[in-house]
């Protein structure tokens, strides 16, 4: 297939409109073909989108919960109907393998029933009888939410903010990632077909300037998933405005500890999935591997290097591939540059991460020995795993915690007391035993301390930041004493 999947720009107040800002395009990092062309929303269009979202909030915010649920349930069905074009849009924009992009769409569909359950459990209406009558707990929406997502899950992650926000009664203005703009119009299409009233969800396309215009508009909340850098910038922007709810989900520099006793082959598989799935473009990917000093650790390094060397790499439509390209040729060059910096600081490439050619995003999986290197506590959003060695499990935990992030972590080990020790001390919001660090459950909260977020975890806990609680004491009817 050639040519852009669509050329729709912005969806505002239930209407498709051409952006009046700067033109931009996205090329597929696997083929180099242009897969999206369009224009960013202008400043006036961003302002208009927020205005219509505010007008729509008047009604949507007061719509009965069962009606909101029914619309979102229809949206789930409409997403399912669009599964193939949505998966294709994601794959071609960012190079994600089609099989993974299809799972992303399934996850978007599953998000609706999970969010309905979470909303009623965590933010529903509750009543408690008392001696004077009863206590009523209800939850109220904030208003207009600005939604930003990262390029690596351009459908699932914004959807993970939008669905709970709408369920709670908020309205949204969603700025799609400029690195993966194609799936967002299909989501709007699904909302429209589901009968969501105009103005409840609005889409604007564009990059940083458009994003800057959105946060500067009259919004009540910012629901953001993306990099630490952008997040900090937004956090500073909203300093002194506690009335604006900020849910910031950021990156990680995630550790995976593999410790004796365990099976080397099984541990290798967990490390491969953790570090290299989606070409390392998952916030929960393991970036740092911590192994015991000695023969067992050496065996694990050899085994991972051998497996990583033979990982199949291919374009999005290659069913046999394990890794697709990075999102762009630029991202691939940055990954190589990050590795070069580590090597210049004393690291040794066991298996170098290499860019296949300068014009595409393809890189090979890298494994790098950090024994004699100065650690760099930065997230490298690609398939590069840094190996550290520890003398005992306490040193391994200290190494794992030597990061300002706190998103994900893992332990591979068959000894339960070691797990208990690690679990109690490792600072990570997602901490797994004998499972890859990636592939979080939607039934659980997602987020972590440190530079990984502002303690507003998403996924199952997204209901919490989408509504504010209202506590009422409701007395029995006042008696007349005449
Ligand atoms: P990014 O921060 O560069 O971009 C995210 C969004 O912010 C995009 O829409 C972008 O246009 C916008 N943006 C960026 N800079 C801006 C600026 N100066 N002004 C206004 N808007 C701006 O993130 P990315 O590179 O798209 O995504 C990768 C990052 O996302 C990684 O750090 C990854 O760890 C993180 N991530 C986190 C989670 C999580 O749940 N914690 C999940 C996936 C990805």
TrEMBL record:
Question: Where does the source fall among the domains of life?
Answer: Bacteria
Asked whether the UniProt record includes Coiled coil among its keywords, one would answer: no
Q: Which of UniProt's keywords are assigned here? A: Arginine metabolism, NAD, Oxidoreductase
One GO process term, biological-process aspect: L-arginine catabolic process
Q: Show the SUPFAM superfamilies listed in the entry.
A: ALDH-like
Q: What span is annotated as the signal peptide, if there is one?
A: none
Q: Where does the Aldehyde dehydrogenase domain lie?
A: 16-463
Which GO terms label this protein's molecular function in UniProt? succinylglutamate-semialdehyde dehydrogenase activity
Which residues does the entry assign to the active site, renumbered to this chain?
249
Family (UniProt)? Belongs to the aldehyde dehydrogenase family.
Instruction: Fetch the PANTHER family from UniProt.
Output: ALDEHYDE DEHYDROGENASE-RELATED
Q: Which NCBIfam families does the UniProt entry name for this protein?
A: arg_catab_astD, PRK09457.1
- The name of this protein is Succinylglutamic semialdehyde dehydrogenase
Q: What is the lineage of its organism?
A: Bacteria, Pseudomonadati, Pseudomonadota, Alphaproteobacteria, Hyphomonadales
């Amino acid at each position: 297939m050639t040519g852009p999947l669509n050329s729709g720009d912005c969806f505002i107040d239930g209407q498709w409109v051409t952006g009046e800002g700067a033109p931009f395009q996205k090329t597929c990092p696997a083929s180099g073909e242009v897969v999206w062309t369009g224009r960013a929303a202008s400043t006036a269009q961003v302002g208009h989108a927020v205005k219509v979202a505010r007008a729509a909030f008047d009604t949507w915010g007061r719509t009965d919960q069962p009606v909101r649920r029914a619309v979102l349930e229809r949206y789930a069905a409409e997403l399912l109907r669009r599964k193939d074009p949505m998966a294709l849009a994601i794959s071609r924009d960012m190079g994600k393998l089609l099989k993974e992009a299809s799972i992303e769409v399934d996850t978007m569909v599953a998000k609706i029933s999970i969010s309905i359950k979470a909303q009623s459990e965590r933010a529903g209406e509750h009543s408690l009888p008392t001696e004077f009558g009863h206590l009523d707990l209800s939850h109220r929406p904030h208003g207009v939410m600005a939604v930003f997502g990262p390029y690596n899950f351009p459908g699932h992650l914004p959807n993970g903010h939008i669905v709970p926000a709408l369920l709670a009664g908020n309205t949204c203005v969603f700025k799609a990632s400029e690195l993966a703009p194609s799936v967002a119009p299909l989501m709007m299409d699904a909302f429209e077909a589901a009968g969501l009233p105009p103005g409840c969800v609005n889409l604007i396309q564009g990059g940083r300037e458009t994003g800057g215009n959105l946060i500067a508009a009259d919004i009540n909340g910012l629901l953001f998933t993306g990099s630490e850098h952008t997040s900090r910038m937004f956090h500073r922007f909203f300093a002194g405005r506690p009335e604006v709810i900020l849910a910031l989900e950021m990156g990680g520099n995630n550790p995976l500890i593999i410790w004796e006793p365990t099976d080397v082959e099984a541990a290798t598989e967990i490390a491969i999935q953790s570090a290299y799935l989606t070409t390392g473009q998952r916030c929960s990917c393991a970036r740092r591997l911590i192994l015991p000093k000695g023969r067992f650790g050496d065996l694990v390094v050899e085994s991972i290097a051998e497996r990583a060397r033979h990982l199949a790499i291919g374009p999005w439509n290659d069913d046999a591939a394990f890794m697709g390209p990075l999102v762009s040729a630029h991202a691939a060059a940055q990954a190589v540059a990050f590795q070069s910096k580590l090597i210049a600081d004393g690291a040794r490439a066991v298996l170098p991460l290499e860019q296949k050619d300068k014009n595409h995003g393809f890189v090979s999986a890298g494994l790098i020995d950090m024994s004699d290197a100065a650690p760099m506590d930065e997230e490298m959003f690609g398939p590069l795993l840094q190996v550290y060695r520890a003398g005992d499990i306490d040193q391994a935990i200290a190494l794992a915690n030597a990061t300002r992030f706190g998103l994900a972590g893992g332990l591979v080990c068959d000894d339960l007391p070691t797990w208990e020790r690690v679990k109690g001390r490792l600072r990570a919001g997602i901490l797994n035993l004998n499972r890859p660090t990636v592939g979080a459950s939607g039934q659980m909260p997602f987020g972590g301390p440190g530079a990984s977020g502002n303690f507003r975890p998403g996924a199952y806990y997204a209901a919490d930041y989408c509504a504010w609680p209202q506590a009422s004491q409701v007395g029995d009817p006042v008696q007349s004493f005449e």
